[in-house]
Amino acid sequence: MAAPVPPVARAAQRRIVATVGASGVLNGEGLALWREVDCGDFKATAAEIGRDLDLLEVPYEIATAFRFPLANSWNKRLRRGEEVRIARKDLTRLARWMPSLNKYIEQIPDGYSGFGFPFFEPRAEAMCVRHFALAADWPSWTAKQARAARLMCAECDYDLRQRDDEERLPYNIPLPEKPNRLRLVCGRCCNDGLDELERLAAHAGSLSYGVRRRCHVD
């Protein structure tokens, strides 16, 4: 006979099931629950969700993640938040408390988007892959929301979330006067980042930067 569930764990189960049902996002890497910073007066914070998951013995991590600015926001900055992320391999631990989750896990297609938004970044020594720390629901944002989050090509306004055209993958090509500001451009508008790669290599005093390779950068 299975051991009875302690009341404190049962209460945590009810809260987690309600939270996942209201705001959970499934993707190729797992499940995410986003919370804006200082949201505690209105809903459970990421830390509070984490404490419930601890009680249920479900592994997770909390990562910084940004969402598009609100339409009435005066400064138009991305909204900083914290995202509780449960890796796909650990979802069975959550499904123990939420059996209905199993059918959704089975429906996740192969190659589906994951946490963060990947893009290429030319550097003097190589072409690197980085990840824009966005909330996991970025694929479902409207075009207006994606534009506010700088996910449209800065040159031609192409939606960079589309990955079916390899000529239009996203590259970070900052303006010279704003070298530290993320500015995403599709490959067709920036020669796949090669012009920027050569410019940076020349600026670093090396025109022979060797074999162009792609390396992962967290």
Describe it for me?
With 218 residues, this protein is of the alpha+beta class. It is 27% helix and 22% strand. The chain contains 7 helices and 9 strands, in the order αββαββααββαββααβ. It has helices at residues 7-23, 46-55, 91-95, 101-106, 143-148, 187-190, 194-203; strands spanning 25-27, 30-36, 61-67, 79-87, 117-122, 127-132, 170-172, 184-186, 214-216. Strands 1-2-4-3 form a 4-stranded antiparallel sheet. The longest helix is centred in the first third of the chain and has 17 residues, at 7-23. It is elongated and about 70 Å long.
Summary tags:
218 residues; alpha+beta; four-stranded antiparallel sheet; three-stranded mixed sheet; 7 helices; elongated; disordered C terminus
List strands and helices in order, with pairings.
Blueprint: H1 7-23, E1 25-27, E2 30-36, H2 46-55, E3 61-67, E4 79-87, H3 91-95, H4 101-106, E5 117-122, E6 127-132, H5 143-148, E7 170-172, E8 184-186, H6 187-190, H7 194-203, E9 214-216
Helix pairs in contact: 1-2
